[in-house]
Amino acid sequence: MIPPSHSVDTPPASAQPNAGTSVELRFATGNMGCVLPLLAVCIVAFGVAAARPGFLGHGRRRALAELANGATVGGIAVLWLLPAGLLLWWFVRLGHRWADGVAATASQRGISFHPSLRARPAVWDEVEDVRIETRRANWVDVREIVLELRHDLVRIRGFEDDDGAAEAFVAAVRARLNRPA
């Protein structure tokens, strides 16, 4: 007699690929740790330049500083706040990735993504394909994992690829989708 937990159509959980395990894809946090202090210094410099209009206006940059200092509101140079705000946004985004480190997790229920990727979690029925692509961007080859979901396309860049971690993640997802690697 076949035990009730097993059926002819469905193999036992222990025989299914990745049963009960989860596979993580991690961000390459080493580079982020080097960039964060540099971003902090630049944010402070632009913030001080916004509050003290003459801060960045020495030498050859004087014409640019005078142009930027011309747009002031309440004594604050607004044009210096724009790059400070953009850099602050990147600082928070990279800091969140650096602190967490996990880009995506493939579990028994589906795939969940880091919040900075702005993609909602997907159950396995929504995942259509996964692959690794290499694209040329600004004279550099960039590897990215592309997850095709039923109603979305998620691209993960900046992942850690030591010892074939990206290939292992893609193979685990493909095994769960019952597709060859």
Pick out its properties.
single chain; 181 residues; alpha+beta; 3-stranded antiparallel sheet; 4 helices; 9 strands; 36% helix; disordered N terminus; transmembrane helix; membrane; transmembrane
What this model shows, in words?
Strand 2 (72-73) and strand 3 (76-77) form a beta hairpin. The chain is α+β, with helices and mostly antiparallel strands and 181 residues long. It is elongated. It has two domains: 19-27 and 102-176, no CATH class; 34-96, no CATH class. The protein has a four-stranded antiparallel sheet with strand order 1-4-5-6, with helices on one face. Strands 7-8-9 form a three-stranded antiparallel sheet, with helices on one face. The chain has a two-stranded antiparallel sheet with strand order 2-3. The protein contains four helices and nine strands; from the N terminus they run E-H-H-E-E-H-E-E-E-E-E-E-H.
**Can you tell me the overall shape?**
elongated
Q: Which consecutive residue ranges, at least 5 long each, have pLDDT under 50?
A: 1-18
* Alpha-beta content class: alpha+beta
**Count of β-strands:** 9
